[in-house]
Amino acid sequence: MDAHRGRDPRAHREGETLKQVGASALLCCALAYAVAARATERVWVEVATPAEGVAIRSPVPLVELRGWTGTGLRGDHDVLLVVDRSLSAWRPSGSDLDGDGKVGELRKLDRDAVAHPFWTTDAGDTIYRAEVIAAGELIERLDPQTTRMGLITFAGGGRVRAPLGSSATDLARALRTLPSHAERGGTNFRVAIKRAIAEFERVPGDKKRHRSLMLLSDGFPATGKSNQGEQVFVEVAARRAAQAGIRIYGFAIGKEAVERPYAFQTLTSITGGELLLVEEPADVVQLIPYTSLTGIERIEIDNLSTATRARSVRVFPDGSFDAYAPLHPGLNILRVTAHGEDGGIRVLDRRVHYVPLPADTAERAAEAQRLLRELRVRTIEMELAERARAKRKQVRWRELDIRLEDSP
How far, in Å, CA of 24 to CA of 372, rounded? Predict the structure, then answer.
């Protein structure tokens, strides 16, 4: 990210005002179009297991449900992580990301600072490091059976570090082996998106596949053009992405990005994606694993036969979900309710029969212990998920406030 050159506020004031009004009107129209498009998308839900009418024989009165949910057409996902490696991303994040008990601070800059890859006293606590950790967290939460992933880094140019369709192992290796210094040039969103579009088009897939670009950056575009020129570049890139069926999910990381979010707003609104303003860079690690690529807000699972709710309901970014539902002897009617982010709802019932078994063998006792351990682990994970969802709501409200108050 390179700083914009200042403009004389007295020069062409009337013309600049008209430009701002026009740009604001364009952004508002794009936002309205994206919201309307999302609102018309139907919610769907499928249950893979258990099968309809199956008999559950177990010493533990629980059954695990697994399935998929989403909005629009049922299809698998293609996801590209696009990570900003411009020089400014090596600034301190303000948090102890590497857990060494020290928080990196900004070095006193001198004439050699630009050539130095580290701006902080702890290279493990930079904004860039937060981006890398967040990317790794998302990779772990996406199902390779339904989602193809890839990794691109950018600054002045864009580079594919792991092609779309790479395994989780290869993606993790690509993150670990990224160079420890910044890439050349300022934050050029246009070339990053152009490179991503080419990578999406390189890999064949049916029209039902959902294309998502996860943009992690601490800056606004730096193309060397005027502010108005940069806005045009961003809008053109966004429209090309939208034409290619790509939704952009923007994570504006750090105070400067939050204060000047126009480029992120344009990219996400025109493509029907989502923008999260992450003022504290370390928060992106908590937020990105719970991003919804499917327009689903939450899943609720109830046993109508016992008036009890399922425990540990997990919904992953690609729309896959799992949960443990309580059972009682005999017929159980399990209701799955999927809630879309724009108010749509889909309900699906699944009937199963529970046959209790005594834990009178080593095998059955071991099964009971396994389920209890899994429940404890998932309970902890659900607590973390709830905190992340609460934080996500906060940053989304912050983004709406800025949209209402600011104009480019």
Answer: 54
Cα within 13 Å of Cα(131), Cβ side: 31
Contact 299, 69 (CB under 8 A): yes
Q: What is the mean pLDDT of residues 112-127?
A: 70
Which stretches of 77-173 are assigned E, i.e. beta strand?
Answer: 77-84, 147-154, 158-166
The answer to whether residue 73 scores a pLDDT higher than 70 is yes
**Contact indicator for 281, 43 with CB cutoff of 8 Å:** no
pTM, full prediction: 0.77
Q: Are 337 and 296 in contact (CB under 8 A)?
A: no
In this structure, what DSSP letter does residue 266 have?
H
Q: Nearest 5°: phi and psi at 17?
A: -60, -45
Q: Compute the distance between CA of residue 97 and CA of residue 285 in angstroms, rounded to an integer.
A: 10
pLDDT tens by residue, 301-343: 999 999 999 978 988 999 999 999 999 999 999 999 999 988 8
Topology of domain 43-71+294-386, CATH: Immunoglobulin-like (2.60.40)
Residue 138 identity (one-letter amino acid): L
Helices and strands (H and E) in the chain: how many = 9, 15
Higher pLDDT, 400 or 12: 400
Establish how many alpha carbons lie within 13 A of residue 29's alpha carbon, considering only the half-sphere containing its beta carbon. Answer: 7
Distance CA 84, CA 158 (A): 9
Multiple choice CATH, 77-293, 3.40.50.410, 3.40.50.970, 3.40.50.1100, 3.90.950.20: 3.40.50.410
pLDDT of 217 over the 90 cut: yes
Contacts of residues 326-332 at CB distance under 8 Å and 24 or more positions apart, as own/partner, are 326/61, 326/62, 327/56, 327/61, 327/62, 327/63, 327/303, 327/352, 327/354, 328/61, 328/303, 328/354, 329/354, 329/355, 329/356, 330/305, 330/354, 331/305, 332/63, 332/303, 332/305, 332/306
Average pLDDT, the chain: 82
